Amino acid sequence: MHLSYQVVLAQLMLGLNIGAFYAILSLGLAVIFGLLNIINFAHGALYMLGAFVALLGYNELGPLLGMPDFHMNYWTALLVAPLVVGSLGVLIEKTMLRRLYKVDHLYGLLLTFGLALILQGVFTNYFNVSGISYNGKPEILRGAVNLKFMMFPTYRLWSIAISLAVCFATWFVIERTKLGSYLRAGTENPSLVQAFGINVPLMITLTYGFGVGMAAFAGVVAAPIYSVSPIMGSELIITVFAVVVIGGMGSIMGSICTGLSLGMLEGLTKVIYPPAANTVIFFMMILVLLVKPEGLFGKEQ
Amino acid sequence: MKKRLMQFVTCTTILGMAMVAGAAGISTDVVKIGVLTDMSGVYSAIGGKGSVTAAKMAIADFGGKVLGKPIKLISADHQNKADIASTKAREWADTDHVDMITGLLNSGCALAVQKIGTEKKVISIATGAGSTTLTNEHCSPYGIHYVYDTYALPKVAGGAIVDTGGKSWFFLTADYAFGHSLEKNTAAFVKAHGGKVLGQVRHPLATSDFSSYLLQAQASGAKVIGLANAGGDFINAVKQAREFGIVQGGQTIAGMLVFLSDVKSLGLDVAQGMNFATSFYWDRNEASRKWSKRYFAKTGSMPTMNQAGVYSAVTTYLKAIKKAGTDNPDAVMKTMRGMKINDFFSINGHLRADGSMVHDMFLVEVKKPSESKAPWDLLKVIKQVPGDEAFMSLAEGSCSMVKK
C-alpha cells in the first residue's frame, strides 16, 4: 500500500472514530474501578444493551404500543438508553455488587462476568448474532463531509464529537467540581465523608449507574455504524480493558488519552500491516507493562 | 461323516444367516442422525437451530420410521471449534451409535468430523462448510459435501460479474483458510474471464470496523470490490461501503458467499443490486415455496441454503437406506452414489465419487425496495447454472479415491 499523507490522515480520522468509542467505554470502566473498586466485566454487555434499547425502541416500541408508525427516534434513544441501562445498573449495584465491596476484587469481576454471560446469552437466544441494522440515523447526520483529504461520513464526525464531549465533561465533573471531590473523597475515606453529612452509599450507587449509563450511551452512538448484535460488546470489551490497563487502572485522563491514541494506532496498523490490527493494542499493553507497570497515567500504589 | 457334514451345513447356515442379518436391516434397531452445528456463534443464523428444525421436519415427513425402525435425532453445538466438533463426533459414534452427522458449519469442524467418520464408518454430510479440501485432499468414502463449495460460488458469481463489465477487482479477504481459498478461486475465474486483480487486503476474522480496508479498496480504483468473507464480516463491510459512498461512487460490491439471512439483515436499501451465487432460494418455484412456508411457520424466518440443505440431506440419506434395505454405511453410500437427487432443494443432483454433491446453482440479484412485495421477497433468480458447469470437475480435483 502506497502511503501518501492523504491515506495516513484518512486512517488517523478513522482511528479517532474507533478511539472515541474506546475512550468512552474505558472511561466508564475507569470511573467504576476508581470509585467502587469493581472490575466491571458487564460493561460490554451493557454497551450492547444500550444499542438494543435504541434498536428495539425504533423497531418494536410502536407496534407494542399499538402505533405501528411510531419510532423512538435517535435523539430520544440517546437519553432513554442511558437512563434505562443506568437504572438497571443501580439495581445491580443495590442488590448484588454492594455485598462485594469488602471482599477481593476478584469476586466483583466474577459476578459481573457472569452477568455479562447471562445478558449476552438471553439476547443471543432471541436475536441471533448476525447483527441487525439500526435504521434510525437522523436525516441531518446522513451524507458525508468533504475534509479535503477524504469524504468523511457526517455521522462518524458527529460520533467523534459527541463522544469526546461526554468524555471531557465527565473528566471535568470528577476532577474539577465539588461533586467530583466528594466522590473521590468518599472512596478514599467513606466514614469521614459520611460524617460530613454526605450519603456515600447513594453516591456510589449513582456512580455505578452513571458508568454503565455511559456504556449504553456509547451503544446508541455505535448502533448506526455497526450492526446491533448480542456479541458487539464482548468483541470490544477485551480491547477496552487493555486500554484501561495501558492508561492506568482508574485514571480518568489516562483512559481518554490512551483510548484515542490507541484507536489511531490501530487505524495506522490497518494500512501498514492489516493482520496485526486486532493485536497491536495488546503488543502496546505488554510494552507499557514492561516499562511502566502502573500504566501510562497510573499512580504507583 | 454324514454327521460332520450336517454339522457343517448347520453351522454355515447359521453363520450365513447371521451375516445376512448384519448386512441387511438396521443396526442397533434405530437410525440415529446427529445435527452438529453452530448454535450460538457468528454463523448460528445461517444454520443453528434452523438446521435442527429442518432435520426434524425431514424425519417427520419421512414418517418417523425407515424399514420399520424409528429414526432419532440428536443435536449439539460445535461452537465453530474443530476440537469440540471432533470430540462430539467421536462420542456420538462410540456411545450413541449415530449413523449420520450433518450440519457442520465451518470447514475446520467439517474436516474434523469427516476424518472421524472415515475412521468409525459414520457418514458425514457437510451442509455449511465451504472448503473444497473436503472433496479433494481430504476426501473420504463416507464424506459428502452437500450445499456449495469455494469453487462453485465464485465460478457462478465471479464470471458473471466480469462479463457484465466488472473487469478490475480488489479483494477484502477474511484472514483464514476459508477466505484465502475463496479469494484465490475467485481471482482465477476473474482472470479466466479477462478481468484483472489489482490487489487485496486481508482483515482479521470478526472485524467490526471495515472503513480502513474499504478506503484502501476505494483508492485502488478497482471496478469491483470482492468480499471473500461471510456472515457478520460481510454484513459490516457492505454497510460501511455504503456509508463511505463507495457504491454511489461507481464501485460494485460483490459478496462471494452470501446467505438469505445476510440480505435480510442488511435490508434491501443497502443490499439492492448485488449479484451472488446460491444453491437455493425459497421463492424459486412451487416446491421450494411450499416447503419454505412450512419452515417459516415453525421458525419465523425463511430458510437459508444451509437449512434447506439439511432437510434435503437427511431426506436423501433416509431414501438411500430404504432403497438399500440397510443402514450399513458402505451400502448406503453406494446407493446414494447411484441415485438422482431431485427435490425442492437439489436440482439435477448427484453424488460423485469424491463426495461432492453436484447440483445446479443459481446466480441471483437482490431486488430493489420498489420491487419487493413482501418482507422476505428479496431476490430474483437471473441464471440457473448446471451443476457440472458450476462444480470442479473430477479431473481437476485431487481426491485420491478417484481413479484417473
From TrEMBL, chain A:
Localization: Cell membrane
Gene Ontology MF terms: transmembrane transporter activity
Keywords: Amino-acid transport, Cell membrane, Membrane, Transmembrane, Transmembrane helix, Transport
Pfam short name (any one): BPD_transp_2
Biological processes per GO annotation: amino acid transport
Predominant localisation class: membrane
GO-annotated cellular components: plasma membrane
Record InterPro entries: ABC_transp_permease, BCAA_transport_permease
Superkingdom in the source lineage: Bacteria
Membrane topology value: Multi-pass membrane protein
Segments passing through the bilayer: 20-39, 46-66, 72-92, 104-123, 155-174, 195-225, 237-260, 272-291
Family: Belongs to the binding-protein-dependent transport system permease family. LivHM subfamily.
Protein name (database record): Branched-chain amino acid ABC transporter permease
UniProtKB/TrEMBL annotation, chain B:
CDD domains: PBP1_SBP-like
Record-linked InterPro entries: BCAA_transport, Leu-bd, Peripla_BP_I
Keywords of the record: Signal
All copies of domain Leucine-binding protein, residue ranges: 31-367
Pfam families cross-referenced by the UniProt entry: Peripla_BP_6
Signal sequence bounds: 1-23
Family annotation (PANTHER family): LEUCINE-SPECIFIC-BINDING PROTEIN (PTHR30483), PERIPLASMIC BINDING PROTEIN OF ABC TRANSPORTER FOR NATURAL AMINO ACIDS (PTHR30483:SF6)
Entry's family note: Belongs to the leucine-binding protein family.
Protein name: ABC transporter permease
Species of provenance: Geothermobacter hydrogeniphilus
